[in-house]
Amino acid sequence: MDTRITKLFTIKYPIIQAGMIWCSGWELASAVSNAGGLGLIGSGSMYPDILREHIRKCKAATANIFGVNVPLLYPDIDKHIQIIIDEGVRVVFTSAGNPKTWTDTLKEKGIVVVHVVSSSLFAQKSESAGVDAVVAEGFEAGGHNGREETTTMCLIPSVVDAVKIPVIAAGGIATGRQMLAAMALGAEGVQVGSRFAASAESSAHESFKQKIVQAREGDTLLSLKELTPVRLLRNKFFDEVQEAEARCADKEELQKLLGRGRAKKGMFEGDMDQGELEIGQVSALIHDIPTAPEVLHRMMQEFTAAQKALSGLQ
User: Fold this and answer.
1) 0.90 cut: is pTM over it?
2) Which residues have CB under 8 Å from 7's CB, separation 6+?
3) pLDDT at 116
4) d(CA 273, CA 251)
5) Same domain, 114 and 162
6) DSSP structural state of residue 283
7) Are residues 63 and 13 in the same domain?
8) Which of 275, 262, 271, 263 is nearest to 207 (CA)?
């Protein structure tokens, strides 16, 4: 399949594995890249020396292209950027910040830059900043999310109409049928998070993976809007947040409740009661823990079958 996204990254399939904190280490990124997609190392949960280690291990595990996801609000962002440049990473996905800050620096080194957005306005600003493509991430997505609560079905055509650069759809995509729907709306590739979080190579704790598999419709909710909106699975910590928000707790109280290391405690260390469990609405469609190559091959088979079914409609 040829789209501007497959050509931009020199990949076989227009499927990008999201750079999720505590889930997207070198093992997952290299497995996805080896299978024909684009794997991303999630640097948001890594100290600089750990990021360098993951990049080097990923280079040793795959001859194919891979990238690094960089949240621009990360406190050691300058160190991360320098490591990415020094280690010869060819693709960077940026998020949670102003793309103007680092895009020129990265592109001067020949690095492909993609920025994650949640509105057509920020897609246009990203295009003006010089990025090569944007990820349009809808309200269904797991982890940190846009405040606008625009769903993927509405966001993708809006962003496609607003910019000339390629658009990658994200938020609520775990199957080939959803991938086809996104591309029918004008996207030229998809970014997949939750489905890869519950894969064999994911660095997430096994208990978290099982929690994803057990999730049903309505088991996630966008929360902590007064701080940074994040979609979470329901658990005891989630209930505490809901109770605090119901009585209009201020930002200071919510920040104290969140504390430090809450996401690590849940997704990486396996505390299913007091951990922060970031996952998308599409978790309700996830029922097993396959390998990353199986995820890609399954998605492409579903995509082809759905495409064929649609072609038979009169």
Assistant:
1) yes
2) none
3) 96
4) 22
5) yes
6) G
7) yes
8) 271
